[in-house]
Design goal:
The chain is an alpha/beta fold and 270 residues long. It has a single domain, classed as Rossmann fold. The chain has 6 helices and 9 strands. It has helices at residues 2-13, 88-101, 160-172, 193-201, 212-220, 245-268, and strands at residues 22-26, 38-44, 62-68, 71-77, 105-114, 124-132, 177-184, 206-208, 225-234. It has a 5-stranded mixed beta barrel, surrounded by 4 helices. It is globular. It starts with a helix and ends with a helix.
Length: 270
């Protein structure tokens, strides 16, 4: 893995001169934040050595460098999911690379289903914890000591100071933003009513198919993390209705300006 990280990092450094301070991973239907970036370089995933390729609609598959909130950033416009057929090391490889590029903090977004009855579609939720229900762990196998410890602590995966700042930004801008727990499942099917009930019972406020692997790997390397969810549909059993990808993307796009504002102002404040 170290050789692959070095090969990919060297490839990018030969093409991008600026050192990114912050990394951003954009979820389903949330690529519009890119419009706020003062872009200096764009690399297609297909041309980057060792990078997977996004196969999901609305994931553009581009690594974007530039400035956001006055800070140097690198943004993944499109992520990778377990349900696409990738293993967890492939899914999280880009996080290893952006750490090698110099990233000091990671910001992650996702689209998700709401389980908490106090939430509604297009609300935002800042993650303060998660439940990992995925069938494979990104740290499974031999540990690479140069990257992080064998048994990383996950008692506080999301940075408390970043959470407080984000909630203050939301409040100051009258944005409906909650704080809660994200459950990660395999997908690609949306959950049954019984599964929604179960996931809510074990303590989750929302459910989705991403984010947790990237956070685990980032924390393994000591990167402070912030994550925010856009609620695109409701998983409360009595409110469940048939949902299409188009529905998810439309809801994400409605909420995207608020999410973009929070991330942009959060980065500006650092």
């Amino acid at each position: 893995m170290l050789d692959q990280i070095k090969e990919t990092t060297d490839f990018i450094n030969a093409r991008v001169t600026e050192k990114p301070q912050f990394g951003i991973i954009l979820g389903t239907g949330l690529g519009g934040l890119v419009d706020e970036i003062e872009i200096t370089h764009t690399l297609n995933y297909r041309g980057i050595p060792n990078f997977p390729v996004s196969t999901v609609e609305s994931h553009a598959g581009k690594l974007i460098f530039g400035k956001l909130g006055g800070k140097n950033i690198v943004a993944m416009q499109g992520r990778f999911h377990y349900y696409e057929g990738y293993n967890m090391k492939e899914i999280t490889f880009p996080v290893r690379v952006i750490k090698s590029l110099g990233v000091e903090k990671l910001f992650v977004s996702n689209a998700c289903g709401g389980l908490n009855p106090d939430y509604k579609v297009t609300d935002l939720m800042v993650l303060n914890d998660h439940i990992n229900l995925l069938p494979e762990h990104p740290l499974r196998g031999r540990n690479v000591e140069e990257l992080g410890p064998r048994f990383p602590d996950m008692s506080a995966p999301y940075d408390a100071k970043l959470i407080d700042k984000a909630l203050a930004i939301a409040k100051a801008n009258n944005i409906s933003c909650h704080e809660g727990v994200y459950a990660a499942v395999q997908g690609p099917t949306l959950e049954t009513k019984a599964e929604y009930r179960y996931i809510r019972t074990i303590g989750a406020d929302v459910v989705g198919m991403s984010t947790v692997p990237e956070i685990i790997v980032a924390r393994h390397m000591g990167i402070p993390c912030f994550a925010i969810s856009v609620i695109t549909d409701m998983g409360i059993p009595e409110l469940v209705k048939v949902v299409s990808l188009e529905d998810v993307i439309n809801a994400a796009k409605k909420a995207e300006p608020n999410m973009t504002l929070i991330i942009k102002e959060l980065i500006r404040s650092l």
